[in-house]
Design a protein that fits this description.
Layout lengths: L16 E5 L5 E9 L4 E4 L29
Antiparallel strand pairs: 1-2, 2-3
Length: 72
């Protein structure tokens, strides 16, 4: 993103989260990854992108389909 698109008095640092919006007004978070001479490099990936996620699930009900047959 060109530096001139940011307010001149804004102190930007690598690792800093920023809120941006797309053409439809939908907001999303980006992270400053690098500051170069004329541009600010932003990462728009979700903060959990690339991370291992572990979920604990409880199966409450199975609906529809054929009956499950378990053989020893």
């Amino acid at each position: 993103m060109p530096k001139e698109r940011f307010p001149q008095d804004m102190e930007i640092e690598a690792g800093m989260p920023l809120a941006m919006s797309d053409g439809n007004g939908q907001q999303f978070q980006v992270t400053v990854t690098e500051i170069k001479e004329d541009v600010i490099v932003l990462d728009a990936n979700h903060p959990l992108a690339g991370k291992d996620l572990i979920f604990d699930l409880e199966l409450v009900e199975i609906v529809g389909g054929s009956p499950l047959i378990i053989m020893p």
